[in-house]
Design goal:
heterodimer; A: mainly alpha; globular; B: alpha+beta; eight-stranded mixed β-sheet; six-stranded antiparallel β-sheet; 14 strands
């Protein structure tokens, strides 16, 4: 994760260029659609550029941007019309069956738990940064991830027995 | 974590749909700033009006972010203004998904599109289902409209109307665009479907490919400054054309209606019907279309379709000369015409 920095245009651009894929893919877990996720990331970085002077440097710049990205993605998800039932599951990069159980188990988690899992294990954010991104305390992050672990373990064991 | 690591999450998460573009971020930041200034001005104006009036009714726009088939959700804000002058229209093929694109570009900047998806592939962005996007709306700036129009005209195909054949193209494709004070129509046909037109020269074939690619994916090449609203929303019409069709020779509306269940007859009587080729049609507002669809839902056993457009197929009573009646809903576009949604 990119740590404490001031929110200069150069730092935002560097963060964007180095982490665009990570932002877009995690945002897709919120919007349910990779095109809309890309749009959310673009809008969020534009907001970060516009509001960069309000960043007080109390946490990591990346965590601050994550918070904006997730807010935009959630707002997009709330506005959208639910997808029809026959929609395909999200692409799995050529491994359609390998992770099917895990994908289903993740999809059934509450949105906050699922996002916390992606931020921790895919975006490599520490607990403080996840707390900043989700607007919750570090203790709540730990509890959220514990709950996610327990739910995933239980669902995967149920499927495999 | 017990059962997954970064690699498994990497496989589960969808790939980003396109490359990063910092220029686009900066352009959006400038647009947001402009919107914020305008919002402040509008808010100030609204506050003044609210102070000056004894009551105020809050109206909130409700935009639909995904295409839909049939009537829009209750409360959806119709596309405004209700009518618009057409600058360009097209129906072009493309590689991959979408397979075909229909589009209408208006002088006021509206770009309305209807895309035919590949049902074997993932659903189109903001699409209604895997077969069709439904009608989608974006908005171009005046400069964007001109950029799109001039890009197409500069292909060299639009000096005069043209009707030609092209290899490996669908049966019917066209682009109609304003060139100066004339509207030029270029139509091309797949060689498997037609033999009468002359075959496109290599230069014409290249130009057709170029034009089709540009029109099928305008967001891939139009700069951020060309867009007033790049975000895709559903096109919400103000009116619908409802058409009845029976296989065989066209019937008078009264005879068509008589073939339907009593409850359907009730809601289709006393309409101002007009003939449209083999169809018999009437116009309704979007609110009226919604009520009518609800009434047809309740009118009796009918096959309801919705992959491309909303339609009901009623079987006629045993012994009737005609076997079925189809009722089809098509939205009116801003230039006052409907299109055949199921055609592309």
């Amino acid at each position: 994760m990119i740590g404490r920095r001031d929110a200069s245009l150069e730092n935002l651009e560097a963060l964007y260029r180095s982490r665009f894929d990570v932002f877009a893919r995690v945002a897709a877990s919120v919007t349910g659609d990779s095109e809309r996720a890309r749009d959310a990331v673009q809008e969020a970085f534009a907001t970060a550029v516009r509001k960069r002077r309000s960043f007080r440097g109390e946490g990591a710049l990346e965590a601050w941007v994550w918070r904006i990205v997730l807010n935009v993605a959630r707002s997009d998800a709330r506005r959208s019309v639910p997808a029809p039932d026959f929609d395909e599951p999200v692409s799995t990069n050529g491994h359609p069956e390998d992770d099917a159980e895990l994908r289903v188990a993740l999809a059934r988690l509450p949105e906050r738990q699922r996002t916390a899992v992606f931020l921790r294990y895919y975006a490599d954010l520490d607990y403080a940064a996840i707390g900043e991104a989700l607007g919750i305390s570090t203790g709540t992050v730990a509890a959220t991830l514990n709950a996610a672990h327990a739910a995933l373990r239980s669902r995967l064991e149920k499927v495999r027995t | 974590m017990t059962d997954f690591d970064r690699a498994s999450l990497d496989r589960i998460l969808p790939s980003p749909p396109g490359p990063a573009s910092w220029d686009d971020v900066m352009s959006r930041a400038r647009t947001q700033s402009g919107h914020r200034r305008r919002r402040l001005i509008v808010l100030a104006a609204v506050a003044l009006v609210a102070v000056g009036t004894t009551s105020a009714f809050a109206m909130r726009a409700f935009f639909v972010d995904r295409g839909f088939i049939g009537v829009p959700p209750v409360g959806a804000t119709p596309s405004a203004p209700e009518s618009g002058a057409l600058e360009m229209s097209y129906w072009v093929p493309s590689e991959g998904n979408p397979r075909r694109s229909k589009g209408w570009v208006y002088a006021d900047g509206r770009l309305i599109r209807l895309l035919e998806g590949d049902p074997r592939a993932r659903r189109l962005r903001a699409g209604a289902n895997r077969w069709s996007s439904g009608f989608l709306e974006q908005r171009l700036t005046p400069e964007g409209v001109e950029l799109l129009r001039s890009e197409i005209v500069s292909s060299g195909l639009f000096g005069h109307d043209l009707d030609i054949r092209a290899l490996q193209h669908p049966c019917l494709n066209y682009v109609q665009v304003r060139n100066g004070d004339r509207v030029v129509l270029v139509t091309w046909h797949g060689t498997e479907c037609s033999q009468k037109e002359s075959l496109a020269t290599p230069q014409q074939a290249n130009a057709l490919e170029h034009v089709a690619a540009r029109l099928a994916h305008p967001a891939s090449w139009l700069p951020a400054s060309a867009w007033k609203q790049r975000k895709i929303r559903a096109y919400v019409p103000s009116r619908f054309e409802v058409c009845a069709w029976v296989p065989g020779r066209p019937l008078e509306p009264s005879r068509i209606v008589a073939l339907l269940p009593a409850a359907a007859q009730e809601v289709l009587r006393a309409r101002d019907w007009h003939a449209k080729q083999a169809f018999r049609c009437f116009d309704v507002t979007t609110k009226g279309a919604r009520s009518l669809a609800k009434a047809l839902d309740d009118a009796g056993p009918a096959k309801k379709g919705g992959a491309f457009h909303l339609n009901y197929t009623f079987e006629t009573a045993p012994g009737a000369s005609r076997k079925e009646v189809a009722i089809i809903f098509e939205p009116y576009l801003p230039h006052g015409e409907t299109t055949c949604s199921a055609c592309g």
